[in-house]
Known about the structure:
Number of strands: 12
Protein name: NAD-dependent epimerase/dehydratase family protein
Helix content: 40-55%
InterPro entries: Epimerase_deHydtase, NAD(P)-bd_dom_sf, NAD(P)-dependent_oxidoreduct
Domain NAD-dependent epimerase/dehydratase: 23-245
Order of helices and strands: HEHEEHEHEHEEHEEHEEHEHHHH
Strand content: 15-25%
CATH topology: Rossmann fold
Radius of gyration: 21 Å
CATH class: Alpha Beta
Amino acid sequence: MIKLPFAYAGLYLHICTTIPKMILVTGATGFLGAEVARQLAENGQPLRCTKRKTSIIPALLSSYKNIEWVDADMLDIFALEDALQGVTQVYHAAALVSLKQADKEPMIRTNIAGTGNLVNLCTDHGIRMVHVSSIAAIGNTKPGQLITENHHLDVATERDGYAISKLESEMEVWRGIAEGLNAVIVNPSLIIGPNAGTLGSGQLFETVRRGLKFYTDGGAGFVDVQDVAKCMIALMNSGISEQRYIISAENWSYKDITTATAKAFNIPPPSKLARPWMMKLAWRGAALASFITRKPPAIDKIAALSSIQTRNFDNSKIKAAIGIEFKPIVKSIQEICERLSK
């Protein structure tokens, strides 16, 4: 065995411990995945991001030279294995999302199988993972109580395909953890931010901008996309494993969120309460219109029912874990409305 002089041995150790480790982000063309990739790239991290062949690289990531883009479908285990070469950390944000009833079963199968493939590869190669689940995978509690990480969704009674797919995907990660995977799970609430544009959560703000007349008698947790990414990166770089964390900044009623949005746009806020029977008519009408036009419904049954439910979340666990101070939601609303106004 060759022995190095002490000085050279010290230099060799320094080089080995300072070589940047490759990080993989799945779903980097999506709203949250793109923000995770942006923050990592901004810090100079060598980064590899997966995308579908038909996906477009987000504008906010197009200028970074330290991002390597690879085509890798989550169901293509060989492409995934190639993408994981040299990788030590994975942020798994990729997931299929659809409101179409016809997509329910394919979405469930795709999200579960894709996560299972990644879990198996990360377990085999000793790669640490932060998995993005959702509050959709967390159960309810009694009225007036905060929902915590200890509440679990009952898949036997759940009808929302997305919620089922996120719960079962999360179960794949827990299965991997039992087999030796080093992983942590995050369950973000409703993620908002200017880069959503008019898609996803951005639809709410664009709808208010166009003159929404009705509000619903429900509420939920909201969080800025930048804070979700910060939490994920902080958890990745911590020694924490085998835990799930609700990532939510504040609990808002839908009336208050639409009123604050209208105020930011300097327009009248919604003033009429959409009662439960009205929401039932709305989703049935949207279903009929969708059948006729062959386009996705403006609102489906699950979304209609969710809009009249109040689900408030406890964020004390993530605050205690990493000391995060969340951006005030009113500030996020202002930033979103300024972007949409342009």
